[in-house]
């Protein structure tokens, strides 16, 4: 089986000979990392389960653990910046809120006034910030976390993400909807409500341009909702099955999404279309952050830390499926999927076609296509009933053409 896996893997990389856009780094922890931020190209922090806080001062090449004396899961990290100082804020389970005023050397824990799990924190400066969490809770501080005021969110759903662009305009997203405020959080109004949607992340670059990634528990397909009018209207776009956990836009055109099973997507047209990027991991990727248009990091489960210095784009990409007018094999959709999925292949000329499905060990588990086909575009439907959850590869051969893609069955 090991030999089969090596052969299959080598075939994949033979088709995709390129410089890796995302590089795996040693985070110095096996705990799951849920949030990260950088203040410059050298200095950044990440926080996660079991009170884990790590810091880098060399662009992520090495990470060191910070001691916070907190052993509760930490879910979200943000930075409040004034010209004279940099303050780090982190929130977590059981109402935990901690702060560092010395770049992470020491931490102070505050009483937030709740024991409810807090999932997201947003500060617009070193004094004013908000947190959100279970049961629709939203808290606000105007004194750098020393005291917190409970706000009326007008909902009791789990709120997973919160973002403010100034002292008045803010948005929060959760299990079933998006809510907005124009008066600093005193009042919240529903903007986008669907009880079947799981919204994990929301991000705005300014008062008008925002994105929220979600997946649908009924239709079993992920989407991206985009607004250009501050959330008065939202338009849905496909995200190539990223099952996004985190979404980040550096400007109104360039954005990234990270999600389940190592999925990374990149958009250069404001979220209208997305391109899959290779992460070299199957761990869930919980937080993506970019300092500029090319330098970014992603943190995930099991201490996974990724870095890119070229926007995550593969350079020198020579996949035969990218050649116009040539053979092609598309990524299956949806992916991950439960029961059914489909993909397409194209032939520029008549010929024999073989498409085979392999499991993660490299073992052949199903022949998806074995036929002689005339030139044209074909659709293959695959029903995964009887297959166990996991990662699989489907490989197409026709003439001299070979291409391999990955699919994930999730039950």
Question: What does this protein structure show overall?
Answer:
The protein is mainly beta. The longest helix has 14 residues, at 2-15. The chain has one helix at residues 2-15, and strands at residues 23-25, 33-38, 44-48, 53-56, 64-65, 74-82, 85-92, 97-100, 108-110, 118-123, 129-133, 138-141, 149-151, 159-164, 170-174, 177-181, 189-193, 197-204, 210-216, 222-227, 235-238, 244-249, 255-259, 264-267, 275-277, 285-290, 296-300, 305-308, 328-329, 340-347, 351-359, 364-373, 376-383, 390-398, 401-409. The chain is built from one helix and 35 strands. The chain is globular and about 70 Å long. A hairpin with a 2-residue loop joins strand 15 (170-174) and strand 16.
